[in-house]
Amino acid sequence: MSLLEKETVKRVEKKLKDFDNNLKIIILEASARTARDAASSLGCEVGAIVKSLLFKTENSFTLCLISGDRKASLNKIKKILNIKDACLASADEVKKVTGFTIGGVSPIGHISKIEILIDNSLKRFKFLFAAAGHPNCVFKIDFENLKNISNGLIKDLIE
Is the full-model pTM beyond 0.85? Predict the structure, then answer.
């Protein structure tokens, strides 16, 4: 089966096409499971890779889109959400909430509605690359369109 036929990749592709028919899924020869792997495969800076990190909060989940060369600040995320407790979601929780496995979590195409925060440091790049439902699939998008397609709130999320 081709990667484009996988259900998770099809979900992302449908969101991309509904938003802008020019946005396409890129299939990589090597895995893009980590930001460094993805940057190496694409020949771009690590910072241009969008890490999709799911945090378990007091009563729900929040997806944070972080630049591949930065670390998320748990304290900033807790302040923004006005909560006392948050942690990274487990692999099982990520799969259950987003419908994707770690390494292929896309900013779009989730199986349930998730609040999304986008780190403002991603603005540094003309183009960004985000996972598209599988560790070997990504899509290229600019910051403004990432914000619009994901309905994410732009915040300072990094340490």
Answer: yes
